[in-house]
Amino acid sequence: MKTQISSIVALLLFFMSSCSTVKTAPETIEEITGKVESKDFTVVMNYANPMRMKPVFLTSEYDLRIKNDSAFAYLPYYGVAHVAPFDTSDGGIKFAAPMMDYKITPNKRSTGWEITFRVKSNLSLYDIHMNIFNNGSTSVSINSYERDMISFEGEIKRDLMK
What we know:
Blueprint: H1 2-18, H2 26-37, E1 40-50, E2 56-67, E3 70-75, E4 93-106, E5 112-120, E6 125-133, E7 137-143, E8 150-156
Antiparallel strand pairs: 1-2, 1-8, 2-3, 3-4, 4-5, 5-6, 6-7, 7-8
């Protein structure tokens, strides 16, 4: 019961922080818009939210990269696997594959984008749903038949200012 309550509280805090009324600089919005529309961006993950566990703060750099028509992921997995991999080094969510059924739409409040696509790796077929906000914060949900759903919170990796 405590884990459910703490998970709900963590999700509420995330949604409240991502929907804050802080203004985002027009330069930042243009930079992020350009990256999203050109399909050339990297999302660096900060938190993992497993379906049946407490949220996990990520101390290593895990990311999901979109480049043209392909997606590249190096992400951890916490949760229940319904099918165990034969090779234990295949843990986590790792793929480098073309995207299928890629769709991008502005979100309902015009504060970012919703992106959905599918990726087939050697081990699984992943359904991915991303919400990218104008300030660069991002939430990513990954679903597959072999494992429980997991979501991540992160931000778009920005170019260093010159």
